[in-house]
Design goal:
6-stranded antiparallel sheet; 4 helices; globular; about 30% strand; single chain; two-stranded antiparallel sheet; alpha+beta; disordered N terminus
Length: about 130
């Protein structure tokens, strides 16, 4: 597997296979949430009840966080803002899940629940 240097954590990470991350994320999702996957940008995007919440790419599994949730999750050891390429700016909403969390189902589920719970609530449309 190819490696790249992650400047946010000063470490070296292995490239990931999005198709191998898919069952890991699916098993960590709460059972009452409809999680679907769609190919996007050479990887996969995951949707919770139709709303995007995760990017699965060769960079790893990145979850969407908003507001103070973003800062809180970014403060976790090993977490880093998503960057598909080194020369791209860091994402202001997606955080790459640290490697150790991927192999700990309970920890990963906690991250997934926090991500999904921060998604905007779909508003009912007004009828004319």
């Amino acid at each position: 597997m190819a490696c790249y240097e992650d400047h946010d954590t000063r470490g070296v990470r292995m490239a990931h296979d999005p198709k191998l991350l898919q069952p890991v994320l699916a098993s960590a999702a709460p059972p009452d949430v409809d999680v679907t996957f769609r190919p996007m940008f050479g990887g996969l995007f995951a949707y919770a009840d139709g709303k995007p919440f995760a990017s699965l790419s060769d960079v790893g599994l990145a979850l969407k966080f908003v507001g103070c949730g973003y800062d809180s999750m970014l403060a976790q050891p090993g977490a880093a803002p998503l960057r598909y390429e080194q020369d791209q700016p860091a994402s202001k909403s997606y955080i790459v899940v640290p490697e150790p969390v991927l192999s700990e189902p309970d920890q990963l589920r906690s991250w997934v629940i926090r991500s999904i719970s921060g998604l905007p609530v779909k508003r009912a449309r007004k009828r004319a």
